[in-house]
Batch of 2 targets.
Target 1
Amino acid sequence: GGILLLEPQPWKSYESKRRVSE
């Protein structure tokens, strides 16, 4: 999970959580 580009699977989850945070 460091680079989102290298990990497209967790990227979706990360983006979702970030939007909820903001």
Note: DSSP finds one helix and no strands in the chain.
Target 2
Amino acid sequence: MQSIAVASGCFEQVSQILFTAITINAINSCCFEQPREASLALRTALQAVTCNQGAFHCTPQLRGREPEVSEAAHQPSCSTVIKDWSENSRHFIINEKLTGETLNIAWSRLSPDQRRRIAKQTADYITELRKLHSPRIQSLTGETVYSTFLFLAGPTAPHGPFSSDQELWAELDKALVNVPKKAPQRLQTMMPAATPYTFTHGDLTNVNIMVDKGNLTGIIDWETGGYFPVWWEFTSASVGLGQEDKDWKTLLQEYMPQFKEANEFWLDFFSLSRYPKLDSRATAFFQKIKE
């Protein structure tokens, strides 16, 4: 989970990010690599939120504005800050443990209807966060982002910020340096526009979804969260880490905003990045550009 800095002129947007994230229990235990002041802004917002019989209230109003959160039949509970401290230029926040268990543990015991309900609840909360936009691909603090499956040339390295499709493509193209030039040139023409840059979790794997009694109780592990291409939340859900996770994400995608063209682009990108190893998709791509 990244820290959130309250920069001049963007307090209202950051406040809404904080409040919305809290209502879906974005934070379980967090380590912040950004300055202490930034993470303290998050803690202050956490302490301003109270729970009352499943409903969420922001008290007092943040800068005179009550953030709007959509109604839902089942609302996760608030998570209380237990402790925060600094250590070696890093700031830590620990919250109460969320109710329930991770979806990968519960999956085999859930009925088809329960699985669908959890998928819809997850998509609904993610849709709320998708209302948040940025002028750049960047973290919540305006700094670099991390993504294992988007930036294939450096999956554990920081990337960005990026302000255009050209800048984004230049970064993606680093994973294709050994591929015959015609393939990346064709692939670039297939990349959908990345704007509006949209707040994205980016790792909705089943180990990051908390559930209890057939309902969503939290979404955890937001360390790769930030502003990404508008299509990345949907596309990143194409990556299944095992059969059960694949089944979960296939179901989740049914309830998410659809970006199937972007999904096809990314699948081609992923296959080409493994060159000279060619799977059936990469082979078909090379055949296509010969025609």
Note: The domain at 99-291 is CATH 3.90.1200 (Aminoglycoside 3'-phosphotransferase; Chain: A, domain 2).
